[in-house]
Amino acid sequence: MIIFGVKYSAMEIAANKISLIDKLKAYLVFTKFRLSALVIVSALSGFLFAGGSDGYQMTLLLIGGLLVTAASNGSNQIWERDLDKLMKRTERRPIPMQHMSVSEGVIVVGICLLIGTYMLYQINMYSAVLGVLAFVMYVFLYTPLKRITPWAVFVGAFPGAIPPMLGAIAATGEFGLVPGVLFFVQFTWQFPHFWAIAWVSYDDYKAGGFSLLPSREGKSKNSAFQIAVYSLALIPFSLLPWIMEWTGTISLIIALMLGIAFFLYSYRLLVTCDDRDARKLMFASFLYLPIIQFLYVFDRLPGVMD
Fold it and tell me: Are 94 and 106 spatial neighbours (Cβ–Cβ below 8 Å)?
């Protein structure tokens, strides 16, 4: 039997049940399965918001998007395998722990990328192009830039914001204002989201040679101020679907309330510069995005994009 490019005999499988389970777990960690699943939730919201309803296309989008994202995450771990050993949050990843070889990782990445891209291509060519573009930008631009400049966060925000755009284009088959607005909302959200993570994990990132907060001073008032500015900017940007008259009054009220609450978390960090407040902002950002995206879906005005 061949599993993810690794050959196992029936006797080996029977005798090494635990090691096989551990191997499968290693693949899930290597591809960051939970994170990949969260990413395709954004793609699903874009698909539904743009009027997508075909179950087959939705399945291709979810599985194809999951596989391409998994390939991106795996490539990141291959690229940073020596750095992962230096950080507590990554030292137990499969390659540093020698639960997976580099060549095995390359095979997994290749299989995920090829199958995922093919599935997206079955929807339409633009979906496949966006999937590959997100992979290339994340792996070959964002990943190496992380150790060079804090501007890596700006570069990484582009592939990070592609999922809702990809979902919308999977539904419509064309670029347009709707995919662009969905992209822009997620693009803006990523700055306070990722900087909150960079603040919480500052010492660990520093051990790996990463400096990803917006200020050279690291965890400072300057960094906290920029986080607050982007959180404040997210409020009017999140209202764009309502301004464009794609959603109703419910979106206006709830998006406004969510935006203000999110900003208050960032303002609290600006006042205290405390790790606990950065952690609260980080968790708030995880909740904010899926809520706002599916708020758009549920409050989409009938006939707007049908």
Answer: no
C-alpha 217, offset from chain centre: 26
Return the SS3 of 91.
coil
- From residue 277, give the alpha-carbon distance in Å to each of 129, 206, 273, 274: 39, 20, 7, 5
Is this structure's pTM higher than 0.85? yes
CA–CA dist 260, 265 (Å, integer): 9
Which of the residue ranges 78-82, 98-102, 210-214, 268-272 has the most confident prediction, judged by mean pLDDT? 268-272
Nearest to 168 by CA among 58, 251, 252, 250: 58
Mean pLDDT of 92-119: 92
End-to-end Cα separation, the chain, in angstroms: 47
- Return the closest-CA partner of residue 51 out of 174, 160, 159: 174
How many residues are listed for the chain in this entry? 306
d(CA 66, CA 57): 14
Q: Residue 248 burial by CB count (10 A; 0-12/13-18/19+): exposed, middle or buried?
A: middle
Mean pLDDT of 232-249: 95
